[in-house]
Write a structure and sequence with these properties.
alpha+beta, 3-stranded antiparallel beta sheet, 3 helices, Small CPxCG-related zinc finger protein
Length: 70
């Protein structure tokens, strides 16, 4: 069973679909509103939809220099 899982993971890691999904995921980011203390995951945002205040973009793991295990 373990070999089957390894083969599946190896196939997915080199699949063109996997690259497309990675690109789509990397387009989103975390944005937080300090006023209403909410966090949003979206492609882009300048104002909080709830209260209208400016939101702050939170840095990603890659921007912080942290590795992400897959």
């Amino acid at each position: 069973m373990t070999e089957g899982i390894r083969a599946y993971v190896a196939k997915r890691a080199t699949s063109p679909d996997d690259e497309r999904e990675t690109d789509e995921r990397s387009a989103t980011a975390l944005y937080s509103c300090g006023n209403c203390e909410r966090t949003y995951i979206t492609e882009g945002m300048t104002d909080c939809p709830r209260c209208g205040e400016a939101v702050d973009r939170e840095p990603s793991f890659a921007e912080l220099g942290l590795a992400v295990d897959r």
